[in-house]
Design goal:
two-stranded antiparallel ribbon, alpha/beta
Length: about 400
Amino acid sequence: MEEVRAERNAAKEAIARLEALAEERERSFEQQKRDLIEAKEHLSAQFSEIGSRVLGEAQKQFLQRADERFHQAGEKNEARLKMLLDPVGEKLKAYEAQVERVEKDRTEAYGDLKGLIGEMKQGQERVQSEAAKLVNSLRNAPKARGRWGEQQLKNVLESCGLSEYVDFVTEISVDTEEGRIRPDAILRVPGGSSLVIDAKVSLNDYQDAFASGDEEARSVAMSRHTASMKSHIDGLSRKAYWDQFQDAPDYVIMFVPGEHFLAAALEHDPQLWDFAFEKRVLLATPTNLVAIARTVASVWRQENIAREAKQIGALGKEMYDRIAVAAQHLKSVGSGLNNAVNHYNKFVGSFERNVVSTGRKFAELNIETGKRELETVPEIEALPRYGGEGEPKLIEDEGAK
């Protein structure tokens, strides 16, 4: 846009310079005209005495020629000026058309941007409205808070590549002397162990502290929030999940579905970590639970790789044994071929000595035997090659003894 405007201004300046040049030439032309008129008047005065008729005719011709000359000069100047200004005018029109297109595109883009901003504003308002509804629902419905915490826990575990019913299970209940207990999730760890995780949400007191503008009221609400967190810790400690699940370690993970919930409580009571640890409760937010879950997922992957490597090793051993058995069978086949060759060669030797030699005696006695001659049957010299021990023995030709 700035480049187009700069070119348009440059074109306007060029037109202004050309117009100034034309005006200068017009003034020069007028000056020449005045000079000629003055010369004409001077000549008219000089020749008035010679004769009015001759002078008048000459004056008339002179004025006519002067007018023609002035007219021709004006036409030439006008044509020359037009030749100079026409390209500039066309370029200026092109610039104006381009500026109009750019302005049109800018207007349309601004309208689209304005519409997007309006949609974003409406979406933000809807998000704020839904968030307010969610907060009100969580504040007024303890069960809804519990379900929300459980869902956040499940989302964190699944985001780390863990699968429900494979790597972790939910809603498993156990009957005890004090009643039925049900942890929110049990995370299976390679080696047969399990991590018991329970989600706890302390929302109302935190919201009261966050919305309070008075520092004293905020401190009171934050004290209630911290007390609520400790109450959840005590409750999990009393359930003693490690006694109900034999493969569980002697602690339970308390999942707080919000970094700010735990951070605010720790800011108010820095000893909260130690309090929970003494109760065999480990506090976990989405951040450090992600680290735990990803570590478990990585260990599972390594165990799967090790198991597959073991299976591959077993398959390799089995294949090696099968190849060894097949080699023995092939060796037996080779031995059979070797024996067959030896028997064949033995038969060829016997045939040559006992049959062919007798047949050839007919020819020696000049007995007609026909056109065909008795051909020598060759022995087979190529035998199977064996490396090491276990080569089959050759069968000796008894007739050669």
